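PROTEIN DESIGN WORKSHEET
SECTION A - STRUCTURE
LENGTH: 375
TOKENS:
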């Protein structure tokens, strides 16, 4: 039996802001010095992002119109972790449901046929949580097997995919619904450090859902099947971290992350791909998580990837920003659609690699193959 990536659905909250609007918000509400204002403008202009989505309307309003933040230019007192988590409970359920409905419709599946539900999130908590809401709102079976993959950051979707694959390999009737949902913009912090300015400039909100199924060779031939995964924990807990504070969740993001990835990635990919008699030049599809523009640029240069091979990573970053765990599924959605179009012309992707990076610092990767292509 093979684990098939059947469909992907995506969703965002309703408030879409341009990067120029976001920069103006930062300058307007925080009353920075002229030097810091100029720095904000440069950071936002050079981010590679044109638009981001948020569950908070405030990012496009004047201070006296704020509905979540305090009605003053200094945003004081800052919303508590409790305040932010209450918004998470509302919006995470809404956009997770929308993404899951799309994935089910694209796969042509009825909710009652889902055997396993995996929810990935690191930007809020509740119990009963998003998983219970999805069961009730979608009409999933009350007996569906549920798993939460929590607090794993930007590579959480790859951990969820790994689990879905294990389920499909252990159950030839498995039909798994994987849902990733993050509301990063809830955790906006008031801090004029360069690190925090960059964090505020790139993160956004979104949800994505995927259907993975266990299928026989005859059912799966021509489709993208999950081949393998690979993970490595690198040195340096201070490079990227995600902790809980009194005014929301607090992120640490070192500017050294791209160079550390560049140091470890060639050996990482060699070891991973060599297990399957492959090398980077043989991979015709890349889903690289855009933790930031510099990360994708570094990997493109390091692996000598053409612009077309990193186009979808840059486009998702441009149109949505970094949504943490759902982001890689937004990229895979574009690649999956291209694969399906390619199959009608007699081709499609032969091998596809997903790469993401998260707290630790950790590299997570997965390998997909078109069943029947070089198999």
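SECTION B - SEQUENCE
RESIDUE ASSIGNMENT:
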């Amino acid at each position: 039996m093979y684990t098939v990536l059947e469909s992907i659905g995506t969703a965002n909250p309703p408030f879409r802001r341009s990067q120029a609007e976001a920069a103006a918000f930062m300058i307007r509400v925080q009353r920075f010095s002229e030097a810091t204002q100029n720095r904000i403008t440069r950071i936002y202009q050079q981010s590679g992002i044109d638009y981001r989505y948020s569950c908070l309307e405030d990012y496009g309003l004047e201070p006296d119109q704020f509905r979540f933040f305090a009605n003053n230019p200094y945003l004081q007192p800052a919303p508590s972790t409790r305040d932010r988590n209450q918004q998470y409970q509302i919006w995470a359920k809404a956009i997770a449901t929308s993404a899951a409905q799309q994935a089910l419709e694209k796969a042509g599946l009825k909710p009652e046929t889902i055997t396993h539900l995996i929810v990935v999130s690191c930007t809020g908590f509740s119990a009963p949580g998003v998983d219970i809401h999805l069961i009730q709102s979608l009409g999933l079976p009350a007996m569906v097997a549920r798993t939460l993959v929590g607090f794993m950051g930007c590579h959480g979707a790859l951990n969820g995919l790994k689990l879905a694959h294990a389920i499909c390999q252990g159950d030839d009737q498995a039909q798994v619904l994987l849902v990733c949902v993050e509301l990063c913009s809830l955790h906006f912090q008031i801090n004029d450090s360069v690190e925090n300015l960059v964090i505020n400039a790139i993160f956004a909100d979104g949800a994505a859902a995927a259907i993975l199924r266990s299928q026989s060779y005859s059912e799966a031939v021509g489709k993208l099947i999950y081949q393998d995964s690979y993970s490595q924990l690198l040195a340096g807990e201070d490079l990227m971290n995600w902790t809980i504070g009194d005014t929301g969740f607090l992120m640490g993001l070192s500017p050294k992350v791209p160079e550390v990835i560049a140091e470890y990635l060639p050996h990482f990919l060699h070891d991973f791909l060599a297990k399957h008699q492959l090398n980077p030049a043989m991979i015709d599809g890349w889903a690289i998580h855009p933790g930031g523009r510099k990360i994708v640029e570094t990997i493109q240069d390091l692996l000598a990837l053409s612009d077309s091979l990193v186009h979808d990573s840059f486009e998702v970053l441009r149109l949505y920003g970094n949504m943490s765990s759902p982001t890689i599924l937004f990229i895979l959605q574009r690649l999956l659609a291209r694969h399906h179009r390619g199959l009608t012309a007699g081709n499609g992707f032969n091998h596809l690699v997903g790469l993401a990076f998260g707290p630790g610092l950790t590299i997570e990767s997965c390998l997909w193959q078109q069943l029947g292509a070089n198999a």
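SECTION C - NOTES
Residues 350 and 374 are 8 Å apart (CA to CA).
DSSP finds eleven helices and 13 strands in the chain.
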